[in-house]
Here is the input.
Amino acid sequence: MSLPTSKVALRIASLLVLVSILSGCNQGPAQGTVKGAVTLDGKPIDGGVITFVPADGNSQPEAVPITSGEYSVTMPVGDKRVEIYWAPPGGQAVDTATQGREQIVQQIPARYNAQSTLTHTVTKGEARKDFALTK
Here is the structure.
């Protein structure tokens, strides 16, 4: 028993639609992994945090620890502003009376964190990006 040509075409079209839907179910935004080293005046930073802030403002920043001068993070592709924070053990706590809370003194200049102009474009796959900071 054979099916009419229109029913065969309909089944094939339905199957193709189903396959295309299923193949896209687990796909989110394209991801990239960035690994690298962070140094200050040639010495590895240990215990700091590196944050990748999306330039488009539509997704969450990705922050990861810096351990023994190295970091690794997987995040959506795109242009990012990079902020690096580090207050090593023994960092001074300062009372900011105007805000009524303590603030940790950063050992890295503000041009690399609060006022950062560092950038990186995350691409699909894996890439290396080192940051050699100076005081």
In short: The first helix runs from residue 5 to 24. The first strand starts at residue 31 and ends at 40.
